[in-house]
Request: fold
Amino acid sequence: MASVNTNYGAMVALQQLNSTNKDLETTQSRINTGLKVSSAKDNGAIYAIAQGMRADVAGFGVVSESLARASSTVDVALAAGEAISDLMIEMKEKALGAADASLTTAQRSAFNEDFKALRDQISTIVSNANFNGVNLINNSTNSVEAFADADGTSVITVLDENLSLGGAIVTLAATASLDTVTNASAAVGTIETSLDNLNQALARLGTSSKALGVHSDFITQLSDVTEAGIGNLVDADLAKESAKLQALQTKQQLGVQALSIANQASSIALSFFQ
Reply:
């Protein structure tokens, strides 16, 4: 039936063209953004999952920073502890030399001066072993903590190791000297005990430093894997979208032609009146 009021063929052609234009707009958006799900209206469920994973990735960044700060703090303490250990080995040598009863007063005094200089250097190292305002070896803090997960509910704790003179680890007194054979002999035993304690403290700090490093590597890998997972969910396949774009552009041109042909159908009614 030919009618000038209703052109059903044109309506169908227009609907198909509008559908093609909509698909073409979606494909162009995916190519422009590189995402097949760039907003909640594209796919609400996938968008929500991806946003949650993006929040985790952001949290992993904070965790990595926290671990880096804690690791640096521990490494500074570890370096200071190793320096103290080296100094105490030298101090043992001086104390053992001063314990020789055959030395003259002047000779023992020379040993004593060297010993006190090394002793005071320990105090200097302990007081300056700071990183970011935290000192793990002078008994000024109980511990240092680092985030272990993206929620901040789990932490890695490294306890303080007090390496100050006269403490539980370095038992050598801050006023120790080698002015007599007796004091020198006593200093040898005290230094040996202190070295044993110090080696154990260094072992604990070393283990903590390694644990922080291992967890930092894990967090980096976890962040990378999570980002890859987000990509699998929302990234567009550009090769596929490129092929689809060409197909839709061709379909669009055909749709325009089909609509043009359908719009000419009403002119058939004129032929009945010629």
The longest strand covers residues 143-147.
